[in-house]
Known about the structure:
two-stranded antiparallel ribbon
Amino acid sequence: MALTIVNIDSDSQVLFSLYTGINLYSDENYQLDVDKLEELDKTCLFYFFGDVNEYGYINPKLNELVGFDIIEAELTPEQLCKILTVNGGMAYCHDAGWSGLYWIGFGLLT
């Protein structure tokens, strides 16, 4: 089954990781350090910055799972969500107002 996409249309909505509960987005934490995502939350699959149209983070196991390089294939987050079959998978599509859409995918990789 593809990742479930949850649309969040409020730039004031506080976002937490689906499995670990870490704060991903809030007034106090509006700039998540994506370089530390792998150590902070192993269930994070990807983080996509819509304002610059690029992935800030892709879980190292994800390219193996799909069988190709996601960045080279130039998949949009929506396309990626459709092809992933990950246990308990879900993605936030967060409209952060002036800074655009952010996509954050979660799931349990074994």
